[in-house]
């Protein structure tokens, strides 16, 4: 952010009865190469009465004026007791005509781009926590780019209100190939507001850390209320939703924010003493300097009504979900989730095998969203061997167990061999070691493949176990290899490929042999049931 600041500040009186006057002007304000604008701000405080006047002028066009104030005691005794801004009365007028807000891009670092024009003729009253709007506010041809959460364009927001109602007549947003439309209404009820509204999302992208997590298509309707301490949605009804996962699972990225347990010092003293005190005591302190006073965060509580018809789809899964009655999310200083997510039906392809989810499966949340209890059972049918395998996944967080069973009964080693290779048995050898993970296509498939691969590697008597899903998804094209090393120079393995075409010389089953002469020279050979094979002398060098 850049510009030229001119200001005059006057502070008189005493700490018990301060009087403050601020007159300031910021010219040629902008961020980066964005167009410049001008901001004039005047503020006055006396006897608990605050008055504010702001005039914003854009060099591209238009002007916006804000005038208002509040009754709020800012004396030292009041600050020591703790100031509650949320219940303070507010009065303001907002006037704008074709005001271009492009010059504000980058003023807030997380908002890289903001543009569009504002038209406003409105009065605001009530309290900071529960304000009311009388008049109209419209944002046209809007665009916003938020760091880590993508870009949103063709934004149109139309707000109007009177003494009893505030209505979002339309909020339209486009992003990527998707769009969102929302309308809602708030009605004053005593010291709070009642809410109702509905939203339609069509292939609307959800991003995190700049990566696509899913696209959502749904119709949702809600009722609720707003008070000074709580935004409560006791019923968010979702009769249908489709959540499409991307073709590739998001990559794990290192967090760039400072860890919570690090305190920066300057000459042996914390740079931010307030944050340091909060970390040492385990409490956040009031932003107004009240020592030891906990910051009050307004809670958001949402209860879902979505018993069925919530589909999560990807190239390697298609599962219907539903949430149990009373399932709710709470957002305050931390986010918590309570309730059961039921897996009603569907399939997941893991390591090239199709697993059908059983109806009694569920995921139970009891607090932190990253630590649910898993109780999932899936069935894999091998028609060639006439075996039905049930895999039960139980546990919480990283403490997960995978327990298999089968009909007809097989040993645990036979079951895992069947899952890995499609056959009941392989030649027994030495203890299994880790092998390359399969190429999973979605975040769900990646997690499932990783856990199953760990279990297979620890259970099967092999040195090498590799399963790679086909490029087209499902079982077609799936490749797998299992083998054993004999000494340091000889490797003998079995390689299989589902859907191989013998007329094109593709082996469904093949034997591999490797002999290493030196660290750089080796002999490789392969021959299979399609009477196809190869023999090679290989020279390799690692860098």
Instruction: Give the biggest sheet.
Output: 24 strands, mixed
Q: Number of helical segments?
A: 4
Number of strands: 32
Distance between the termini: 46 Å
Residue stretches low in confidence (pLDDT < 50, at least 5 long) are 283-295, 427-440
Overall shape: it is elongated
State mean pLDDT (0 to 100 scale).
Answer: 82
- The percentage helix is under 10%
Topology record:
Layout (H helix, E strand, L loop, with lengths): L1 E13 L2 E14 L6 E10 L2 E10 L4 E9 L4 H6 L8 E11 L10 E16 L4 E16 L3 E12 L3 E11 L2 E12 L2 E17 L2 E16 L3 E15 L20 E2 L2 E2 L2 H9 L17 E7 L4 E5 L2 E7 L4 E4 L3 E16 L2 E5 L3 E7 L5 E10 L4 E10 L2 E9 L4 H10 L21 H17 L4 E5 L10 E8 L3 E8 L11 E8 L4 E8 L4 E7 L4
Parallel strand pairs: 14-17, 14-18
Antiparallel strand pairs: 1-2, 2-3, 3-4, 4-5, 5-6, 6-7, 7-8, 8-9, 9-10, 10-11, 11-12, 12-13, 13-14, 15-16, 17-20, 18-19, 19-21, 20-21, 21-22, 21-23, 22-24, 23-24, 24-25, 25-26, 27-28, 28-29, 29-30, 30-31, 31-32
Task: Write a brief caption for the model.
The protein is mainly beta and 543 residues long.
Observed structural traits:
24-stranded mixed β-sheet, six-stranded antiparallel β-sheet
Give a verbal description of the structure.
With 543 residues, this protein is mainly β. The chain has helices at residues 76-81, 273-281, 412-421, 443-459, and strands spanning 2-14, 17-30, 37-46, 49-58, 63-71, 90-100, 111-126, 131-146, 150-161, 165-175, 178-189, 192-208, 211-226, 230-244, 265-266, 269-270, 299-305, 310-314, 317-323, 328-331, 335-350, 353-357, 361-367, 373-382, 387-396, 399-407, 464-468, 479-486, 490-497, 509-516, 521-528, 533-539. The strands form 3 sheets. It has a 24-stranded mixed sheet that branches. It has a 6-stranded antiparallel sheet with strand order 27-28-29-30-31-32, with no helix packed on it. A hairpin with a 4-residue loop joins strand 30 (509-516) and strand 31 (521-528). Residues 283-295 and 427-440 have low confidence and may be disordered.
């Amino acid at each position: 952010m850049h510009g030229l600041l001119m200001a005059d500040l006057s502070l008189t009186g005493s700490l018990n009865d301060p009087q403050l006057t601020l007159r300031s002007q910021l010219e040629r304000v902008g961020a980066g190469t964005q167009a410049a604008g001008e901001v004039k701000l005047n503020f006055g405080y006396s006897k608990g009465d605050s008055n504010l006047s702001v005039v914003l002028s854009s060099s591209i066009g238009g002007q916006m004026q804000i005038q208002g104030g509040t009754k709020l005691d800012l004396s030292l005794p009041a600050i020591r007791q703790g100031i509650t801004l949320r219940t303070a009365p507010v009065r303001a007028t907002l006037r704008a005509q074709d005001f271009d807000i492009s010059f504000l891009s980058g003023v807030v670092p997380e908002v890289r781009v903001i543009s569009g024009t504002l038209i406003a003729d409105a009065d605001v009253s009530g309290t900071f926590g529960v304000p009311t709007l009388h008049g109209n506010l419209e944002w046209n041809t809007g665009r916003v780019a938020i760091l880590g959460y993508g870009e949103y364009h063709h934004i149109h927001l139309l707000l109007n209100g009177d003494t009893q109602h505030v209505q979002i007549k339309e909020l339209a947003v486009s992003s990527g190939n998707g769009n969102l439309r929302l309308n809602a209404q708030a009605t004053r009820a005593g010291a709070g507001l009642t809410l109702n509204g509905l939203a339609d999302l069509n292939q609307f992208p959800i991003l995190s850390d700049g990566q696509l997590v899913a696209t959502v298509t749904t119709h949702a309707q809600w009722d609720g209320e707003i008070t000074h301490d709580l935004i409560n949605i006791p019923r968010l009804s979702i009769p249908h939703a489709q959540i499409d996962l991307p073709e590739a699972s998001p990559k794990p990225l290192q967090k760039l924010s400072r860890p919570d347990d690090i305190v920066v010092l300057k000459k042996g003293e914390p740079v931010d003493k307030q944050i340091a005190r909060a970390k040492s005591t385990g409490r956040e302190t009031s932003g107004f300097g009240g020592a030891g006073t906990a910051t009050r965060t307004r809670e958001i509580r949402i209860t879902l009504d979505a018993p069925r018809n919530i589909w999560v789809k990807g190239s390697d899964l298609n599962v219907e979900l539903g949430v149990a009655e009373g399932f709710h999310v709470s957002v305050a200083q931390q986010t918590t989730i309570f309730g059961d997510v039921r897996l009603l039906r569907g399939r997941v392809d893991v390591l090239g095998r199709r697993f059908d989810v059983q109806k009694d499966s569920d995921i139970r949340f009891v607090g932190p969203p990253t630590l649910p209890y898993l109780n999932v059972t899936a069935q894999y049918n091998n028609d060639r061997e006439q075996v039905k395998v049930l895999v039960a996944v139980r546990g919480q967080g990283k403490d997960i167990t995978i327990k298999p069973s089968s009909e007809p009964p097989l040993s645990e080693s036979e079951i895992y061999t069947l899952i890995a290779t499609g056959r009941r048995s392989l030649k027994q050898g030495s203890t299994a070691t880790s092998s390359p993970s399969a190429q999973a296509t979605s975040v769900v498939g990646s997690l499932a493949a990783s856990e199953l691969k760990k279990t297979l590697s620890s259970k099967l008597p092999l040195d090498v176990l590799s399963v790679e899903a086909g490029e087209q998804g499902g079982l077609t094209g799936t490749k797998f290899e299992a083998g054993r090393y004999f000494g340091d120079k000889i490797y003998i393995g079995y390689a299989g490929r589902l859907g191989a075409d013998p007329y094109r010389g593709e082996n469904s089953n093949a034997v591999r042999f490797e002999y290493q002469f030196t660290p750089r020279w080796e002999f490789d050979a392969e021959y299979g049931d399609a009477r196809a094979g190869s023999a090679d002398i290989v020279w390799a060098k690692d860098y």
